[in-house]
Every structure is written in C-alpha cells, then in structure tokens.
Design brief:
heterodimer, A: 86 residues, mainly beta, Folate-binding fold, 4-stranded antiparallel beta sheet, 6 strands, B: D-Amino Acid Oxidase, Chain A, domain 2, 8-stranded mixed beta sheet, 10 helices, sarcosine oxidase activity (chain A), Sarcosine oxidase subunit delta (chain A)
C-alpha cells in the first residue's frame, strides 16, 4: 500500500502511523461522558469506504485524512487534516 | 457413529465404505429455541455446550459459508493458558482444562498436542515480568517454569544465542501449552452438537435481525425467516455488520492478521516458540510445515489478505531469532479478519436488545479460547447471567473503565491493539 501525501508525494505505507477513524477530529464537549465513550471506543467499522487519520510520522509529520476502501485496500483520497478540520 | 480403533480396522478391511457424514445437512425449521449466528469454532462450541450442559437442544447454528471455513480453519493453532491479568487468566485457565478433555468428550481426534510453549525474554526487565507472570500462572493452578539461557538452549538449541542485538536471557516455559488441528476442532464440535440434536445450517446467510419492542424475535436469512426468542451473534470479523442489523454499535475495529506456512520439513521445532523482541511466533505442524506469524497489519481492513510491510517484518524477526529457517520456502500466507476491541480482550455479554447476546472481540487470540468461549456463552444464553470466568468481559467496561483487561499495558484505544 502506498499513500500519496499532499506535501511529500507518493510514499511507502511504512512511513505512516495509523491512528484510527477520522471521528477523532470531532472532539466531544467536555463533560459529555456518552460522547467521550463513543469517541474513544465505538466505531462504525464499515466493510467498504471509510475515513481515517494517519500521521506521516517518517515524513513531513502532517496529519492526514485518508478515504479508502477496507475491503480492497484502495485509497480514494488523501487530505491534510488541517484542511478537513477547518 | 462412534470413532474407535475397531471401527477403523473394520472400515480398513471393507474398503472404507461404511463412513457416514459427521453431521446432518438439515433445512431450517421455522422456529428454534436458540439461534446461533456463525458456525465457527466459537459458535459451534456454544451450541454444543448449550445442548450438553444446559439441555437446550432445539438450536440452529447458521453459517454463511461452510463449517471450519473462517478463522477457525485459518490460524496458527496455538493453545495456551499463560495469561496474567485477572479476568483473562482464569478464563484461559478454564479453557486449557477443557482442551485437555476435549477429544474424549467429543470422541473426535483434534490432534491436540501439549508440546510445550516457550516465550523468550531478552532483558532483565522482561525476565522480571515473565517471572511474575509465571508465578501468577502457578498460583492459579497452571504450570510455568522459568528457564535461564542454558535451560532454553537444552530445549531450543537452534536459536541464535550469539545475537548481540537480541540476546536470549531465558524463557518462560509452559509445558501444557501446545497446538491442535484447527479445523478438526470445528468438525468435532459440529459433530458433537449435531449428535445432541443441533441443526447446523450451512450456506445460509443472515440478512437481518428482527427486533420488536426491544426484544429479539428471530432472524431473516437467505433461506427465509427463522423465529427464536434467543439469538447469539458469534461472527468474529463480521461482528460490526451483524450487530448493526439489530441497530447496535460495538467497540470493534476490524484488522487483518497474517500468518505463513513453509514447505514441509523434517521434525525440527518441537515446541511453540515466541520471540520477545519482535512479534514473532512459530511452531511446526504435524505435516512438517513451519507455521508462523506476527503482528496485525495495524489499520482497519476486511481485505482478508495482508500487506507486504508486515510480511517483511515477520520474516526479519524470524531470521533474527533462528537464522536456520532462512532456507525454508514459504508456501503460502493468509490474512484473517480480527475483531479488535480497544483493550485487546474479548466480550461475552448481553446487548441492549432483550434475548440478543454477543460473543466477539477475540482480537488475535480466539483459537485457544474456543472451548471456554462456547462454555461461557452457553451459560450466558441459558441462564441470562454471565459465567464466573467471563464475568468481567462486558461491553460496559469501556464506558466505566472498570475491569479493562489490557494485557499489553498500552491503554484502551483502538490503534494500540
């Protein structure tokens, strides 16, 4: 699997650290215990297209939102998390 | 038909024409007392113990594919009870005791082989941790022997003891650990359950779960609707999708775990060996192939095939530990879908729907748990209260933070397990 980093270009998957579902960008409000539980533990976990967060750890160090298919390993889009979170 | 030496002799002398299918192939009835979704090791053992221990025999096990065709037929076959944390340790201890009696109980040769398991350690800190783990195992009635470097050399002379980067300090020896013939376990439980009256329905996909007024009523399948007041979801890699049919969201992320088999070799590796400095474990099958694996691929995937980086990592770890295997050719590899929970431990619990139960989140360690998982799930479904050795394995533990069983001590977050 190769990932096309918007800043560095196409790189080996080993340069990237997988964080998990892009839900991590939507932090629940402080004190919202149900929201925090869901945010940390509950996952949609689709067999198909999903969005998750990756860190270009051994590259430019940027956080990326990657849209990909969990059944085929196909990557549809790679976006800087800073742009998604705007 | 009971299997015994006389039967084998008789069939051998009469052209093996008397053997019969080991279980029936029935059409589903319109209603059962219990439906188990998933005909893997865990689903079949659940059905078997529901019938045997609790006298509930009007059961259907519904399997999308065929018996033994999922993760139970695709794994590295290791059986052990060397867990540490309360909650996990008593469960796996219970499981190992069931393994040791399984073949007699099922009248089926699962080729269970207590060949001994050695977890190597490579630093003082790791030795201390393994000594503590060994004490815990002995205290709960299991066996553990702390071996020093020379002790390991007697058992495993082929390791690279002169490796400066990963010196072998010793190992924790678990003599009762070992392996079993993986799909024979599924076949044995299928045959045992069938003989007690359980209907095993293969090639039948569950497409929906009927819930009314917060209670489960039955399931929709590719062979029509089937009613039942109690339904168990035991579907490993597909837990999220099947739970969603009942409107449930579960704390599971699915990942691929790869494993590998080499060409057949003469007997060389007697034990199950795990490398403490890179995730690598190996044993030799009865056919002679070296069976080995390592970590999950570490990103959500349903692809049932792995990626090259983890394959390379496993091969590197294997070569550091035992360079002698470098000339063996890898014949095949496979990837199974693991239902990973945030703390790396399983869930056997009720759901918010009355009569609907789940047995899931086996992460990468479901095989050794097959008997106790079925035992505890059967207890939960029959009595509507958890069995004592699985009582801590609830959905709720993530919300409350109580009884989180994080065996690796890394935290309860999805990307860490």
């Amino acid at each position: 699997m190769r990932i096309n980093c918007p800043l560095c270009g196409e790189r080996d998957r080993r340069e990237f650290y997988y964080m998990g579902a892009a839900d991590y960008l939507d932090r629940p409000a402080e004190g919202d215990l149900d929201g925090i539980h869901k945010y940390l533990h509950i996952r949609e976990n689709p067999a198909g297209v999903t969005r998750d967060l990756w860190h270009h750890e051994a590259g430019c160090s940027s956080w990326l939102v990657i849209e990909r298919n969990t059944s085929t390993h196909e990557i549809h889009s790679v976006t800087l998390a800073s742009e998604v979170a705007k | 038909m009971g299997y015994n030496a006389f039967q084998i002799l008789k069939e051998g002398l009469t052209g093996n024409k008397g053997w019969r299918p080991a279980w029936r192939d029935p059409e589903p009835k319109s209603e059962y007392d219990v439906i188990i979704i998933g005909g893997g090791g865990h689903g079949l053992s659940t059905a078997y113990y529901l019938a045997k221990n609790h006298g509930i025999t009007n059961i259907a096990v519904i399997e999308k594919g065929y018996i033994g065709g999922g993760n139970v037929g695709r794994n590295t076959t290791i059986v052990r009870a060397n867990y540490f944390l309360p909650g996990n340790s008593e469960f796996y201890s219970h499981s190992l005791k069931l393994w040791e009696n399984m073949e007699q109980d099922l009248n089926y040769n699962a080729m269970h082989s207590a060949r001994g398991l050695i977890n190597l350690f490579h630093s003082d800190g790791q030795r201390d941790a393994f000594a503590r783990r060994g004490n815990m195992m002995v205290n709960q009635g299991d066996d553990a022997i702390l071996l020093d470097r020379e002790g390991v050399r007697k058992h495993l002379p082929y390791l690279d003891f002169d490796n400066h980067r990963f010196p072998v300090y010793g190992g924790l020896y678990h003599p009762r650990g070992g392996t079993a013939r993986h799909d024979a376990v599924a076949w044995g439980y299928a045959r045992g359950a069938d003989q007690l009256g359980v209907d095993i329905i293969q090639q039948c996909e569950v497409t929906g779960i009927d819930v009314k007024d917060g209670k489960v009523r039955g399931v929709q399948t590719s062979k029509g609707p089937i009613r039942a007041k109690r339904v168990g979801i035991v579907v490993a890699g597909r837990s999220s999708q099947v739970a969603a049919m009942a409107g449930l969201e579960v704390p599971i992320e699915s990942h691929v775990l790869q494993a590998f088999v080499s060409e057949g070799l003469k007997p060389a590796i007697d034990h199950v060996v795990s490398f403490g400095m890179g995730h690598f474990y190996i044993s030799q099958s009865d056919k002679g192939g070296l069976v080995f694996g390592g970590d999950i691929d570490f990103y959500a995937s349903y692809a049932q095939r792995g990626n090259l980086p983890m394959m390379e990592h496993v091969m590197e770890a294997g070569m550091s530990l035992m360079p002698a295997i470098g000339k063996a050719k890898v014949l095949r590899s496979w990837g199974g879908i693991m239902d990973m929970t945030p703390d790396g431990s399983f869930i056997i619990d009720r759901t918010s729907v009355e009569g609907l139960y789940m047995d899931c989140g086996w992460c990468y360690g479901g095989f050794k748990a097959v008997p106790a998982s079925g035992w505890c799930m059967a207890h939960l479904m029959a009595e509507d209260r958890p069995h004592e050795v699985a009582a801590k394995h609830t959905f709720d533990r993530f919300r409350t933070g109580e009884a989180i069983m994080d065996e690796e001590g890394t935290g309860s977050q999805h990307n860490l397990h």
